[in-house]
Specification:
Blueprint lengths: L1 E7 L3 H12 L3 E7 L3 H9 L5 E3 L2 H5 L4 E4 L6 H9 L6 E4 L5 H11 L6 E2 L1 E4 L19 E4 L7 H13 L3 E4 L2 H27 L4 H6 L3 H7 L6 H10 L1 H23 L3 H19 L2
Helix pairs in contact: 4-5, 7-11
Length: about 280
């Protein structure tokens, strides 16, 4: 049971976490903090949070759980602010990259770093903002925690229990492994969706293309509606792993171009068949 939950950044993920914990009776009080006062007011009006604070110090005072639901590019400044405050609560985050977030936390928090439990819920939609939050967003989804050797075992257990209470499955892996895997499974697909939409919209006939767009185009480009600021930060934060994935994709795309140029139907069919089988395996999970 969480007595006071402080959510820093009450958007889709932070709002959904608040709704899930409240719906399950796992939290007594929820306070929101952020720099967008209108968004905080909306969160309060919707009943997602009990109240908002305009001071980070006031928001975390007495909180036994502090969740940083911010773009990864904003984490460094928040850790620096938290380092100046006196409170004993557990700190965790929901960032899509982990190596850079952990480095920022370690540099800023000092002895309090042991209370920080890095996390990443593998859930979301292309929508953003607290209005899009859902109480069941994490149910049946996966949350990855990437504790360090300094991470306090009690803090880790409390964060694990919090996510389990939302209906999520919780697992652990290294921060490096997380960033490498997510570069391929999440970050690369988002970049490809953005690139495809940008390529089409720059065509003179883009209106005709959009008018002819059916299910396949909409499926492939759905995540291009995601928050550009958040994905800018993810690209920069995970650039090493993402560049490796992009380079491999570029090489494979080059092989596809060459196969089409030489009219190699056998290569195309074998590649498409292998990809189809892999996709069917994913569907069965």
């Amino acid at each position: 049971m969480i007595n006071k939950l402080c959510i820093v950044g009450v958007g889709l993920i932070g709002g959904s976490l608040a709704k899930a914990l409240r719906a399950g009776g796992h939290v007594t009080e929820i306070v929101g903090y952020g720099r967008n006062l209108a968004n905080l007011q909306t969160a309060a009006d919707l009943g997602v949070i009990d109240y908002a604070e305009v001071s980070l110090g006031a928001a975390v005072r007495g909180a036994d759980m502090v969740v940083l639901a911010l773009p990864v590019g904003a984490m460094k400044d928040i850790f620096a602010e938290l380092a100046q405050l006196s409170f004993d609560g557990v700190i965790t985050d929901v960032g899509s990259t982990k190596v850079n977030v952990i480095a920022a936390a370690r540099a800023a928090l000092g002895n309090s770093f042991s209370r920080f439990v890095p996390g990443h819920p593998l859930a979301g939609t292309e929508q953003s903002g607290v209005q899009a939050s859902q109480a069941d967003l994490f149910r049946g989804r996966r949350v990855i925690l990437t504790p360090e050797k300094e991470t306090d075992s009690t803090a880790l257990a409390r964060v694990r229990a919090m996510w389990a209470a939302t209906g999520a499955g919780v697992s652990e892996m290294s921060a490096e492994g997380h960033d490498r895997v997510l570069a391929a499974s999440s970050h690369l697909p988002h970049l490809l969706a953005y690139a495809l939409m940008d390529m089409i919209v720059r065509r003179d006939d883009h209106r005709a293309v959009f008018a002819a767009a059916a299910g396949g185009f909409r499926d492939v480009t759905r995540v291009a509606a995601s928050d550009p600021v958040m994905w800018r930060d993810i690209c920069l934060a995970n650039r090493t792993e993402l560049l490796a994935a992009l380079t491999t994709y570029r090489d494979d795309l080059g092989a596809l171009i060459e196969a089409i140029e030489r009219g190699d139907g056998k290569w195309l069919e074998e590649t498409f068949t292998r990809a189809r089988r892999a996709r069917e395996t994913l569907n069965s999970k």
